[in-house]
Batch of 3 targets.
Target 1
Amino acid sequence: MFEILGLLGQGFLVVFEPQNLLLIIGGCTLGLFIGAMPGLGSVNGVAILLPLTFLVPPTGAIIFLAAIYYGAMYGGAISSIMLGIPGASTAVATTFDGRPLAKQGMADKALIGAAVASFVGGSISVVLFTFFAPPLAHVALVFGAPEEFALMMLAFATFVGLGGDDIFKTLFSICIGLVLSAVGFDIISGEPRLVLWDITGFLHGVNFLVLAIGIYGIGEMLWTVEEHALGGGKSMLSDATVTVARTIAALRELVKTWKAIVMGSFLGYFVGILPAAGATPGSLMAYGIAKQISKEPEKFGEGAIEGVCAPEAANNAASTGSMLPMLTLGIPGSPTTAILLGGMVIWGLEPGPRLFVDHSEFVWGLIASLYAANLFTLIINVAFIPVFIKVLKTPFTILAPVIFVLCLIGGYAPTQDIHDVWLMIVFGITGYLMRKLDYPLAPAVLAIVLGPLAEPAMRQSLIISEGSFMIFFERVYAGPIMIAALILLFLPLFKIIYDRLRKPRPQAE
Amino acid sequence: MTVRTAELLMAIMMGAFSIYLMVKSTELAIGWIDEEGPGGGTWPFWLSTIMLISCGGILINWFLKKGPVATSNKVYIEKHVLGDVAAVAGSLIITVGLFSFIGIYGALPLFLTFYIRFMGKHSWPLTVTLAVLIPVVIFYFFEITLKIILPKGITEPLFLPLYKLFF
């Protein structure tokens, strides 16, 4: 306990270095902008901006990116409320009641509610994080290759079992990510492997950033171009009157929503830990439960402030929650943390439980930065609400080319090979076409990051066991994890059988 | 083209790609090697097999008309949308193609001008300002600060005096 507080204190020393403090404030502001822009969320921001962080040391870089992650979670609410368009999928639930409130001329109340709820959600989850993470990392220290592999199986299995997308498409997405990560050289024998069409550019492998920027930069922007063409580019910006007196009145009213906020925070945190779930389902679940526990459930959808607070608390809490498995086990809890994990590999840090021992300054600096980022984002958000509303008026046709330019350079920077830029364009266009057919793409990004860790873990395990897969089931930790993974993997199948048993004759569609 | 047709084509294309990956994986050993464990091709081979099986599953759902995508008769990409998306995708491809010839500092202003002026219909002063300003910022940030040299093509000699100035 005291040891943890001491380490946290050291973390704050890192955070209060002027450069890091500037990075947090810059990251929060940038994150708020990114989150507020319709179509862009934390994952897009982190993917596109990661190449910019080569400038600063790893601790500064991750602090900056985590601040963007945080800011974007706050910012998503702004366009949900003001435009009725979620700034990111994580803010979908915020539109349900945020938009009606804005239409009734109470946009400021909704915005302040969202900001305060985000702050509480962030604070509760970061405290939970501080005290959960070290013991978990300590347990994980004894993990060997079989446990690591079992954990990764569990991460992938949650996508199949809980992701809610088409099972075959999810499986396809996971496997293509893993195969792409195998391109380049075989790590054990050193032979060139999967040099596709014998193009030499594939010899240095497929960088995860190329896939991430392709999908979350190029692909996402093409998707947004389409949305704009469909919507005719019309803007439906609500008006917001922001005065000090109204703000204080709004804050007073928030007191009665504490139940919804606290519930959302805890729910979001624990849902966020699961790799497939994350902030979007977390906030939707929080909305549902807030409606159930409310005394006036009929107000939901008509402009209930709890309907804004609960999902906003949950999505911020989930973003912190998703960092727990990333830092302690080396398994990201969301696409955004998958990209952060990939960044850690680039910066020369080996993800996994050893991180807490070997790079304690890095880990605690990051944790402390979450406290700081949370506070700064609240202040920046509330103070500059009118500015962020103006930002929403930035024409898409100016923002889009700037983002495309950043993507092109970002794809080139890590390897400095034009081959990768081409590959990124291919991934972007293919990703856009696949997304239109409901292929989930987040599993592919997670897989390309985890692939280089999963394959050696599996091969080493099999070398230890001389080829027997039983090694994954016989060990104290690996066994239960692997069984949980298998259950999740076959969950959709169980569901089908269960439905068949309940309905003796399945109706043909 | 309807969504249903697109679903079929995508599944067939991805299935073919899976087969290609399986064949490509067999360039390395895919079986057990004594004293070494599984061969280098094992991991990608079996994963590509799962990809192929998944594509098979998608095709079966397609034939059985199961799921929202396989039964959707909506247009895959609307005509008026296709124009915009194709213009953006096409301009990106041309821009990257130009990187090797006229360099990033030749291609980016062209791309920005095209997008801001012709797609966005913004004024010329704004277009020119951004088309000049953004590449300058990129030069300072990437080349000077991060020391990442971006492709310049035939414009390389123009940058030699600048390099002398900064490095």
Target 2
Amino acid sequence: MIQLSNLDKSVSQGNGRLFILRQITLDIAAGEFVSIMGPSGAGKSTLLAVLGMLDGDWTGEYRFLDHAVHAMKPKARIALNKAHIGFVFQQYHLLDDLTVAENLDVPLSYRDIKKSERQALVADTLDRFGMVAKKDLFPRQLSGGQQQLVAVARAVIHKPSLILADEPTGNLHSSQGKEIMELFTELNRGGTTIVQVTHSDLNAKYGNRIVQLRDGWVVQ
Amino acid sequence: MIDTLLQDLRYALRTLAKSPGFTLIVVLTLALGIGANTAIFSVVNGVLLTPLPYRDPSRLVVVWESKGTSNRNVVNPANYMDWHDRATSFSGLELLSWTGLTFTGDQAEEVQGRAVTPDFFVVVGATPLLGRTFNAEESRPNSPRVIVLSDALWRRRFGADPTIVGRAVPVAGGTARVVGVMPSSFRPMPLGHEEYWEPMALDWSNRARAGRYAMALGRLKDGVTVERAQTEMSRIAHQLELDDPAFDTGWGATVVPLMEQVVGGSRRTILIVLGAVSLVLLIACANVANLMLARAASRERELAVRAALGAPRWRLVRQALVESVILALAGGAAGALLASWGVHLLVRAAPPEVPRIADIRLDLTVLAVTALVSMAAGVLFGLPAALSRSGAAIQDLHAATTRTTAGVPAARLRGALVIAQMSLAIVLLVGAGLLVRSLRQLIAVDPGFDPADISAMTITQPRPTYSDSLRRVAFYQRLLERVRNMPGVRSAGMISWLPMTPGNAVTSLTVVGRPKPAPGEAPTAAIRLVDPGYFDAMRIPLKRGRSLATTDRIGSAPVAVISDAMAHKLWPDEDPIGQHVKVEWWHPTASVEIVGVVTDSRHDGLDAAFEPTLFYPFAQESQQSSMSLVLRSTLPPATLTRMVRAAVSEMDKGVPVADAVTMYHHVAETMADRRYPAFVLSLFAALAITLAAVGIYGVLSYTVGQRTREIGVRVALGARPADVLRTVLGGGLRLTLIGVALGGMAAGLAAGALGKLLYGVHPVDPLTFAIVPLVLVGVALLAMAAPARRAARVDPMVALRYE
């Protein structure tokens, strides 16, 4: 599904450049559950942003589902992202002024899906995640765990083949974190590829492969 | 599409409701900008854009006589009759003259009217509300008196009596039969405020030429252009010069579209004011755009998340624009409310010279334009924020999700908006400054008389009652005697045409003993009839000879006093005293002796040159039925009106007395065409500078907020409050000075548009161009003071801990 080859990411610093990712070569097959680990500043979140096509400023090769991402224009990358990828952030990043149901509808509304179809999808997802009773609540009325649950639901509602999660349990206490990780495992079993960034060895064990990053290099 | 748009709409409403402070400030700012524009646009619409309320008004023209620089001179009836017979350009050509009528009864009332040839109403295409207009019979000389009333007069004087038609109403000298009432939509013709019409009795068999006092109104035939009509009228005028060289040499004819005649002089002023108010709206938009940018910066995370969830750029732009347009429409609605009040204020403050005041209103057209302007403003101020933020979100989603401060492009955009505001404010301030300076220059002009404590009122003798000249003179002399003895009245006099009153009475004359001038070459002078006490009351000093005396009366040798300008014009190297002239107007054969010279006084406004004037003793000239009484007294005009009315009423209840006005007020009225735009532009300039100050305050406050950590670090590293103050103020001042420089250049280019509105002030007046930037910089510094002080007080520990 994902093939990175000699991928570099750097930013200018003074007269030189500061490398954040160095010569990353990495394959991720469809259906894998990969955990990216490493100390702070190792480049984990940046790698996730590159994989998710949120960051387009890098060199090297990146193939996604046989698409040569490195040769694509930003608009095409966004289209690819839109079609196949769902995101889960550490800070949930729910839209504060939208209700739970409306938050779930946001990604669908950007994908030219008919209103009736969107309503059905939102209803199904609310049901699947056990949030029907909370559909009209605003994010501030939910606990951290509930908010992340909504964020995961929002990430999967348009049935992406790849979920990228950046420290999905970083702001949750352990029981809530466990719940979310079990949810990811279940999604993975259903065929969704998952790549998560985590500091937690425990969470990493939910996956079937660990990629270690150090100073921008893949070390394992 | 529709449902996602509704979604955007719902979300925008919810977001705005969540930040009522922001929403209120934006709506208020826009309300001021849009409200001012709506109010001024209602003037533009009413005066310049709405067709005149006559049938096919674009084909109506006024035809004037012309001579030299005077190209809109009143018309001689015999010349009109020849035009009428010879011209083929018009489907109808009518003659109108100014007249008046005294309604008698419980309360005598002098009313302005127009005498019109019978087909006048057919030519303008107006039908009466009640009754009919005139027939040919009624237009013959010595026909029984008939009148058509205006709607306003019918309502005011006759209580909208539906049975008025056919009734004979009492007027001075008998009765007049009302044959019709015109609807309220029928407007007076230009240069008058008539409230009734009467037939003009023209004797078509008599083409003797004497005096010019009317205006011609024509309807162009289909397919005839104004230019073609002008060519034909010039040809006819040339024929008339040959036919009657003594009267018509040098005289031509001018064809003026009626719309141009009605609004011509005001068009420039109105457009200047519209330009000024548009600048205010632009400043308001810049202000709101800045607020939106600041707000967008704080919502960057949300945009980034939306982008990460797949929002295409146009959706992010649309969402931002929906919010802007909602704000703009709310601002437009509040602006329309403000405008309804503003229009009322503008109409009330408008000088009577502003044409078509009755047509100025907030109607559907104006409201539709307001809605369009609001939408456009919404896009204008929303676009910078929408484009900059959505662009940032899409281009670098990852950075956008983590960035919390405004990017460099947004900061530059905010700076550019402040510069634009400052520049626009300078243009408005310079415009207002030039007009105010011009007004001050004008006020400082010496009118040639002392207006302090002078009140004036016009008294009109009904012609039928005062047909006898001796009776006419005796009445005014008795009145003057009584007035001079009134307590509180120091002196009193009379004049036929009060100084600073629109219009003029001019006559040509010949100097006895000099060769007869060639046709059309005779010198001209303004002619005024005065009583001997006039010069004393107005404090117009005598320079040579003697003043007029009570002995200068009917039967005595005709004498006159002339102005200094006339003495210089006609006798530059001679003593005018003892010279004789023949005045064409009333006494073409009598030889009038010049007995005195008085200093010049201005008649046509403070900006007018001194005009050669001949003052004739009113006791010798008995044709004048309307005279203005001037009183030097510290009593209020209302008291003087009451006292004079009582005196006149004791003498003759049928003689109406107009309300007294102070001479200061009367002089000020002549400056209305300058005072009004100066007032409006000053108002807008004040608004502009306030908005610009708010703008720079907002930018600096935001910048200080964003730089709190940096400032904290600087202070921790040893920066003194003065250093911080200098850094913050320096940034704001730089924007202000760039704005001032650009605005100064733009103002220099734009000032020329003020043209004739300026008096005694050069469009690039150094004083104005020096003071205005200082004022703006001063105001900007005041606006910057609060955020700068806040920056200087940043506690490094608090700032760093907060971060």
Target 3
Amino acid sequence: MQETIRFRLNGRDTTLESDGARSLLWVLRSELELTGAKYGCGIAECGACTVLVNGDPVRSCLYPVSQLQNADVITIEGLAQDDDLHPLQEEFAERGAFQCGYCTPGMILEAYSLLTKNPRPTRSQILSGMDGNLCRCGAHKRIVEAIEAAAARL
Amino acid sequence: MNRNDLGPMAVDRRDFLKFTGGGIAVAVTLKDTSIISEAMAQQRGYPTDFNAYVRVGEDGRVTVFSGKIEMGQGVETSQAQMAAEELRVSLDSVDMVLGDTDLCPWDAGTWGSMTTRMFGPALRAGCAAAREVLLDLAAERLGVPTDRLQVENGIVSVVGGEGRVTYAELAKGQRIERTLDREAVLRALEDFTEMGTSPKRFDRREKVTGAAQYAGDVRLPGMLRARILRPPVHGATLASIDTSAAEAVPGVTVVNQDGLVAVLHEDREVADRALGLVEAEFDIPEPTVNDQTIWDHIVASAPDGRTGHEAGNLEAGEGACTRVSENTYYDGYVAHAPMEPHTALASVEDDRITLWVSTQTPFGDQGRVARTLEIDPSQVRVITPYVGGGFGGKASNNQALEAARLAWITRRPVQVMWTREEETFYDTFHSAAVVKIRSGIDAEGRVQLWDYHVYMAGTRGAEVMYEVPNAAVVSHSARGVHPFATGAWRGPGANTNIFARESQIDIMAADAGIDPMEFRLRNATDPRLRSVLEAVARAANWTPAPAPSGRGLGVACGLDAGTYVAHVAEVTVDESTGEVRVERMVCAQEMGVVVNPDGATMQMEGCITMGLGYALMEHIRFQGGDIQDLNFNTYRIPRFSDLPEIETVLVENNQLAPQGGGEPAIVCIGAVIANAIYDACGSRVFTMPFTPESVRGGITAG
């Protein structure tokens, strides 16, 4: 069903005329021209498409845009303030907490939400909090270290 | 041709040098590299003599063109380091262009841990030669002989005299192309300023901001997204098809040509739905083999073996043994499962086609697209953006052929991005395989007999490694054995072979009542092997004890891509459930000169983490051509909760040129975990992955 959906996208008021059943992932990747969120599995099992809706990490591949009415959406493109990277982005970059980088946007946003809710997570809380985000290159060790380092700075 | 001829080269063979603006381009002729197989190159119609291209721009920036691609392994950065080292410029003045078939020198593909080991020497020699060209230009400019010049940071100056000129100044106003085929002198290890350091990765900012482009992120005006009709199982044939309902969807284009049935729409999800409206019936063959019967099938299908290594006499060896052990090891099919599925975007303009492909083999794809469309390779350009993981799986790229055909037919840009289910269904799996070993030891705990038969895993990693006087290594392979495609999977074959060998070594150590580290050292004379074993024992604080000691400690070692590795694993086993948890992994790696220690360490960590998958959880279930694990809901790969403590050690060996780094640290993971499981609970596992059932079964049987 065609709907008019108003929401904030990376801090900007956005209006979308769209079939409300479409998924946020493909709307982001096509007309909204934000390709940081990636397709990985299409069934909310890998976390590559993770974005924040009202601060919560959601799997945008299964998230219908009709639910975005008045919501606040943050994608990886909206995390840095102007040219200043978020501490999580800095720590991921400096510590090499990525390899191919395909899962990285989802990892960083998942970690952002984790630290928002729990600013001083233990290592085991990080491991369980990040468990739904898959990385095939095996950057896990450095991702955990980057999250710990960012937590120490925030 | 005069070896010192610096005259303009004939460039009409390639379009490479049609760069705009000024600058100096250097195409380097290297006579002694084996990087380009001449036969292949000539078959492709490419020059055989250009191995590396470098351009020095009027702004002093250096652009290096390499046929290798960046899929996470960090070679964008490490190649730039090698180039900066030889050119004598700062690393941040180097730009890399990777995997573009119009701009980069031909390359067979990015696989086999070969970028640094095999292409590195050519790249370095090319950049050293380019430095010589620049020095010759500087000598002309400054009016002094070349041998009086020195260069640092892109500035040429006269030793002990006046006069300096920068690369930028040499390039200014120039539009020249030079070639050089004299011997270029590589920088010596003790002079290195770029190689051997760990600069931050070039791709770091793009990859943490979402700016990094992958093939699926490239968008063109009017682009259609395609979904393609797939058979439900491998080997099925299309019996009937009705696309009328899909054609009725507004904006949908249906292509049905020579076996390719696709629905296309600007919106991916509309294409998804339209594909669901295609009514197709398939004839499905009866399954003849499944994931339980595959190993019998493999052994029966590959009766004839080829002996790769032979020493002494097996009968005499058996006579020298006080104890002989015979075991069979099994390995299943494993998916590559890169996070980025196979993706391609194709765009046609007149008689030329340009593709952006998630590929490890841009030049191979160029040729395949040309053959598919029956056009000349010069009409095909393949561009490789960042690749979201490959592991061998992106050496095969049917999605590029599909995108090419659909764009050629529709004359519109077409993106093909496989679904995760397509990705797994069409994956070229790590091959299921069987290894049979009969081996024995004498009273002193020395291996006297090694009779090794590998079925369908090949000989990579099948070397004996130890000093065994009576040995035979026989590889059995045949075509058409697998019910679906198989291919190279990170450390292909070696994961299987080393699992078998190092398990068997452990069994003999236990038979002899000797600590497994001591047993290996007692039977190893290769100094590089001994050095990694000793290093890992030190790093892990190994204290000797025969297995099973109850501590859950295992050791394994291997050789891959010229690099030696040894691991110690510490595991805990829940004896009631058979669940295995890897608590700690220590890895020592000796890879010759290390170009980028932090980059090498990342690869070791990645190998260890990825290796947990094939050892403990990854296994494709199937009935004939019906692949039953297609997505991450049932195909489980390592997660954060599986992560052990990881410690890595790089063992120095600066006497040896740089060796491979992308794969070696994965090849022992199955073996080291199997050995640690045995040490923990006395259960010997013979089939990968080590499921809780098999571990528990071993405890009961033991």
